[in-house]
Amino acid sequence: MHPHDLSAGGDVLDRVTRCASQAAGGYGCHPAATITLLNVSENATYLIEDPDKGPSILRVHRLGYHTRPEIESELAWMDALRAEAGVRTPRVLPAPDGRRVIAATDPASGERRDCVRFEYLPGSEPASHDTAHFAELGEITARMHTHARQWVRPSWFTRFHWDYEAALGTQPRWGRWQDGIGVGPAERAVLGRLDATLAARLAAFGAGPERYGLVHADTRLANLLVDDGAVSVIDFDDSGFSWFLYDAGTAVSFFEHEPHVPALIDSWLSGYRRAAPLAAADEAEIWTFILLRRLLLVAWIGSHAAVDIARELGAGYTRDSCDLAEAYLSRPGVSQPS
């Protein structure tokens, strides 16, 4: 089945929900526990309300995206960040036999999916216009990057890459931006110039260890929980190896074109510098990574047309992407390949 199978709709979701019920049993939840769907994007996320154990979060993975070792690697980094970097991440709640990842089977179809159960963390998503939260996000991101540079990963650790090839190359992980919603000949021309420029600038920027390593890769505000001043970072499902500054691009996902974004990025940078140095040459390239993420999301929307946010953004996101691309390509110092 296609890696993005959860965007396919009803029948698939029924199978996933039956897997969730099986997983709750496998994790030792009370038979009377209720299971409520919270979110479907890449994976399906459920709230389990257990009369004995209280609330927890169950993630049911889509098919074909991560191997079991990749999921275990994600959880290992989350543990290490919480223990060693002061980054609040949700704890993994193992099954009674100690397994952190279990395979649940839909009894009707025989389909098997990997599942993980996490502690329930209270809190709400911060407002997208709040510069103080962006400064805090920048500081947390710097702590994650510092940890990633120093962390001795387990020998079995394995995660995928978000390099140019994986994002926009010949086998793009989220599909081709050329197949995005509303990408006609005019849009293809503008975004094609952007693509070529990104490829050239990323190649010149390089992927040395000071610039490229293990990142969250989806530090959207939707993946932050603020509760009484404490901030938690959730959803490391896309974490992998990329440019550290790619995390800055992901922070403004889906609203990169809004007029207040430059102020938010300035706040993010000020927070980042509170926790780690950032070379001027790196800071000068930050819009390259915002545009890399933007073009990647044009592809994501095209390959996730059934997901609510993709339906809502649609062709308007592509149009705004072209305007953003033109502004980026006309910036001083951004030379375009001939």
Structure description:
The two termini are 40 Å apart. The mean pLDDT is 93. It is built from ten helices and nine strands.
Provide the helix percentage.
Answer: 40-55%
Query: Whole-Å distance between the termini?
Result: 40 Å
* Neighbour order of strands in the largest sheet: 1-2-3-5-4
User: What would you report as the Rg, rounded to the nearest angstrom?
Assistant: 20 Å
Which percent band covers the strand fraction? 5-15%
DSSP strand tally:
9
Structural class of the secondary elements?
alpha+beta
Kindly report the average pLDDT value.
93
Nutshell version of this structure?
With 338 residues, the chain is α+β, with helices and mostly antiparallel strands.
How is the secondary structure organized here?
Blueprint: H1 10-26, E1 34-40, E2 44-50, E3 54-60, H2 68-84, E4 101-105, E5 112-119, H3 131-150, H4 164-168, H5 185-205, E6 212-215, E7 224-227, E8 230-233, E9 240-243, H6 246-251, H7 261-275, H8 280-283, H9 286-303, H10 308-329
Antiparallel strand pairs: 1-2, 2-3, 3-5, 4-5, 6-9, 7-8
